[in-house]
């Protein structure tokens, strides 16, 4: 996705304008996709989850709105709007929205 395709050429934007919470769903939108890494916005309805999985890259979660429980290596973390959480490469993690929530995931490949 290019900078212009999501309206970045118009100046500052809000992640919550790029991805909306939908009833009973998890929705994502890729903001940046480069060989070095990705930035993806996710919207979760309350109670929606991603089951335990791992990724071969370090990742950083930024909560934009709402609250989630994110387990990293089996350890639960309550992450609220305005907070950040690091997830190391190859460590299993899972995500569950405690309420309607939006987060940004930055994955570093390089």
UniProtKB/TrEMBL annotation:
It comes from the Bacteria. SUPFAM superfamilies: RmlC-like cupins. It holds the Pfam family Cupin_2. Residues 44-108 form the Cupin type-2 domain. CDD domains: cupin_HP0902-like. This is Cupin domain-containing protein.
């Amino acid at each position: 996705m290019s900078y212009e395709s999501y309206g970045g050429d118009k100046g500052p934007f809000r992640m919550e304008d790029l991805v909306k919470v939908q009833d009973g769903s998890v929705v994502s939108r890729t903001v940046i996709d480069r060989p070095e890494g990705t930035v993806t916005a996710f919207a979760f309805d309350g109670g929606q989850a991603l089951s335990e999985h791992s990724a071969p890259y370090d990742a950083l979660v930024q909560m934009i709105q709402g609250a989630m429980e994110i387990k990293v290596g089996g350890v639960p973390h309550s992450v609220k709007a305005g907070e950040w959480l690091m997830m190391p490469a190859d460590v299993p993690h899972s995500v569950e929205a405690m309420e309607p929530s939006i987060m940004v995931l930055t994955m570093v490949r390089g």
